[in-house]
Amino acid sequence: MVKQETMLDLEFRSWLLEQPEGETLLRCYQCGRCTSACPVAEIEPSFNPRLFLQKILIGDKSIAENQLVWNCLTCEQCEVRCPEHVKIPHILILAKVRGLMAGNVPLAALDRARTIISEGRSLSVSSPMLKTRTKMGLPDLGTPSMDQIVAMLADIGIVGKLENVKSVYGDAEDE
Amino acid sequence: MTKTAVVIGAGLAGIQVAQQLTDLGIVVHLIEKESIIGGLSTHLGRVFPTGDCALCLDASTEIFDGQHRRCQYRGLVTEKKNLKLHTLTEIKSISEVDGNFKISIKSQPRHVDLDRCVVCLECIEVCDVNTPDEYGIRGGTRKAIFRPIPQGVPLAPLIDMEHCTKCGKCVDICKVNAIDLEEKESTKTIKADALILATGVEEKVPLDFPGYEYRTSEDIITHAELARLLDPAGSTNGEVTTSSGNTVSEVTMVLCVGSRDLDAAEYCSQACCTYSLKHADMLRDLGIDVTICYMDLRVPKSSEHYLTLAREKGVKFLRGKPDSVIIRNGKPMTIVEDTQSQKRMQIESDLVVLASPLSPLADQNDALAEFIGEYGFISRVAKEGRVYACGTATGPTDIPTSIAEANAIALQVYTDLEGGV
Amino acid sequence: MKKLFLCTCNKTLNKWLDYARIEKEMGSTFDAIHIHDALCLEEGLTFLDSEVSAEDSVVIGACTSQIIGAPMSKRLKCEHISYVPLREQVAWVHKDDQKGASSKASVLLHDAAIQVDYMDPQTIVETDIEKKVLIIGGCIAGLKAASDLLKLGVEVMLLEPSEWSRKSYEEMNQFMAESSNLKDAIRDLVLSSKKAKTVRGKITELSGNAGLYQISLKHDSGKEESNLVGSIIVATNAEHSPPPIAKMCRYGKSDRTLLITELPTLIAKQAAKDTKTIFVAVDPSHQLSTVEGSYLLRTITQASEKGNTVILAHSDISTKDENLYRAARKAGVIFVRGSLEKVKDSKKGMVCRLENTLESQVREFTVDYLVLQTQLKPSRSTGQLANVLGLELDQNGFIKTRYSKMKPVQTSKRGIFFAGSAKTTWWPWLFNQSRRDVI
Ligand code: SF4
Ligand code: SF4
Ligand code: SF4
Ligand code: SF4
Ligand code: SF4
Question: C382: which DSSP letter?
């Protein structure tokens, strides 16, 4: 059992509650139904959405500093079963956003974000892939026009952040 | 002038309020849609807080200081001159004229004359028709002329015309000519000064709660069904078996199924925690292991001893609301997070018992629609000086609170009707 | 003599029950055993007449007290009678099992034999009934009872605790309902019970029987008087007392530790910007009742809505109204499931330490106030009162109910009833049924 001092830093909690639908977090009465419904929790015992919510509720921001939350598939299995209509996957996304801002982000996710900015897709398209498509008679993919979107993202500082940020987990993590 | 009150619903609260008012000199019509009185309690077997049979209170240990040898649920109701019991009767409409109610009722025929029948039960012996017993579980049957439960009041049998072949055997054997196969339904209008709704609750059939496969397996049951299994007078003689007839060694209980849930009943059903504990105690006495999956144990002060007993008897408590109960290898398996060890568990057991919500019956009758409030419950004074409610019609609760409320309402009605000062 | 009469009930009961065996087994319990057919018919009643004298205790094993009770009680001369409904409770329910049925019959008959031994002589109820009720007050249920009885034209004497005022009702009953509702209710009740004769003081002696009790009262002023009343309603209040963890929490030693009942005053006085961190703890040994739970939730919701940071250390949350729990969560109360382990008074605040069982982690919170959930105990006067009135108490010191299922407002003595918190933490509506014995 770990002892933890809590100087009651509610900054993370308050930030999250202010985000759209973030306040659904408060409805949670910790029944644990989400965790028993979650397919990731079934294979990864340390992945526990109910526990994540408990930590956020109590002002503990560790989940935003931990890679674990990135395992959420956003499958919403938990949300449909939650008796109090807590938007669980959405709240976990908010935690990811905070992670992203602080660099708590797995390299694979960073790579994808960067690919989106550079190519307009989450996965880069290789020339063998294009060849296969032509063989199968599929239309040309073309290049998505990202200029406007990138400009917007640059405006709010995301592009710069993405270029500089380093995954705190290094390159060795598995997905 | 003598005042008249109509009490709708002859569950425990209805019986109590009716008796109290009759004792105070008011004429009471007690309307019950079933063939016997007692309401939900006829399904429950042993009831808290004293753990005696709902219907045979004589077995209670409290008789020694209370000296109540007589069962109030049954006695008196059929004996009092000013208390008119109408069974198999429904309210058709309620209208108000000059401060008086006109209540029209419709009674289904019982086919057995209550004033003649001496309850010898010979008729039931000779009837050849066997049909599934509504009160039974695991395949019990009854005759076409039958009594729903042995202790039901009125004690006389009734005939279920859907299954009766009109063979006439029962008519022939009845020495007192109590049976009339041709009796027709009847309607009547009662004038009343006050109306008391004691319509009560029923245990909801948990068909609409996703995750809990009540529909697919006979081994996933409700507490009312478990009570039937545990009832020594029931079709299983008190033996707890699985649907395939095997003995049961492990039972998992899931609390708050569909209660405290924004998708189902938003309220807490108040009584399920306690009857889960009561059933857990009874199962432990039979040597059966019990795990209770709960969120909060809400046990009223008068029933706290059930919790103590359950702990002493080694009932396992697990704090977590299961996501689902599925069938794995022919047995029910409960998937739940033990929130206090943060472990996701898969519990295999022989039976799973769901604490399904208690839902109000009043909103099933359109004639009562104008009195219904939040969630289908009714407030104690539904209409100032005229219409009252008590018992579980005002919200789910335990028996002592129901009775207390019935007493309180009886006095309120009396004060409003007779209190001139 | 203790006598057993077994009815064969139209020669049916002896088909299902082994009467010979029962007779043998009961031989040592009863002084005489008679088996007779149709005891309820004239011939059977005459037989009873001839066999029973006024000093006997009688057990009757027959169909059911419903059918047989009425004709018999008219004919039996003795006072101690117990009916065992053999037909309904044994024969009908154990039809195919003569051995089991007979055993159950023996057990029930044996119980009845013990029961007649324990029967008090029949309660004497005076027929010259005094149409006046004494209400021993303190709880708003007492006011409610007074107001109702007055409406029925019954004279009421309201005995209130020393130094009592309307404000006391509000303070003592604040946990029952939302404070504005409560104030209105009390105002109405005080008004409608105005015609009651109010006395401040205590009761010193009681004699007599239901219907006509003689009571001696001692007024605060020192005056003593004696009165006749028909029945008595005990409506004393429950008191909030500090929980067992109070000492560990430095209650009484530190200004930072309060009881939950003091929190509303604190919040009311609070300046808008002066928000605090408040830790509310429920003693783990205490199972919250629904009334206590609802009060707790209402209070912490208010505290939180005022901008305070409120942490509640709890175990099971009980409430009659699930929406109170929802409101508390919505207001931002931080719920921690666990029990306080250690408390330290420091400069920065009260350091409260506990294990949050929902994450298996020990947490420490430094807070401005530590607020303790109280335990409702019977008011100090209840025990003393029970002594004077000769009433039994339950293990918690509340007045014992006569029969919790059917007679939840009767005490162990006829003609004395209770209302509200004198018994337990029930809602004030739970008043009395005393008029039956009064009118
Ligand atoms: S299912 Fe909903 S209420 Fe239950 S723990 Fe998960 S988020 Fe909270
Ligand atoms: S959305 Fe995420 S947390 Fe919810 S069930 Fe799916 S993987 Fe689990
Ligand atoms: S045979 Fe006649 S008297 Fe006997 S139980 Fe049937 S209806 Fe009643
Ligand atoms: S008439 Fe009907 S109830 Fe009577 S014996 Fe025949 S089938 Fe049974
Ligand atoms: S009484 Fe217990 S099981 Fe029933 S709804 Fe309330 S908390 Fe759930």
Answer: H
State the Rg of chain C over Cα: 29
Q: How far does CA B371 lie from the centroid of its chain?
A: 22
* CA C19/CA C7 separation, integer angstroms: 10
Mean pLDDT, 10 residues at a time, chain C of 439 residues: 86 83 91 86 83 88 70 75 81 77 87 77 53 78 81 83 74 70 82 84 78 81 84 79 91 93 91 91 86 92 95 93 96 95 92 94 94 84 78 71 47 58 31 36
CB-based contacts of A11: which residues, under 8 Å, 6+ apart?
Answer: A59, A61
Integer CA distances (angstroms), C174 to A99, C143, C200, in order: 47, 15, 22
Closest approach atom of ligand 5 to CA B298: 2
Contact C89 B56 (CB under 8 A): yes
3-state SS, one letter per residue, for B104-154: EEEECCCCECCCCCCCCCHHHHHCCCEEECCCCCCCCEEECEECCCCCCCC
* Residue count (chain C): 439
- For the beta carbon of residue C317, count every other beta carbon within 10 angstroms: 23
B58, B151 Cβ separation under 8 angstroms: no
Residue B17 DSSP label: H
The reply to whether the predicted model has a pTM over 0.90 is: no
- Residues 305-334 of chain C whose Cβ lies under 8 A from any Cβ of chain B: 316-323
Q: What is the ipTM of this complex?
A: 0.87
Residue B270 alpha carbon to ligand 5 centre in Å = 5
Q: Which of A175, C252, C427, C330 is nearest to B395 (CA)?
A: C427
C107 close to B (CB below 8 A): no
Give the length of chain B: 421
The single-letter DSSP state of residue C418 is E
- A-C contacts (CB, under 8 Å): 52
d(CA B47, CA B282): 11
In B172-312, beta strands by DSSP E = 186-192, 194-197, 201-203, 220-222, 250-254, 289-294
For B398, the closest chain C residue by CA position comes to C405
Shortest CA distance from B152: residue in chain C: C88
d(CA B18, CA B7): 7
Which position has the token pair 């009395």?
C432
Assess contact for C197 and C156: CB atoms under 8 A.
yes
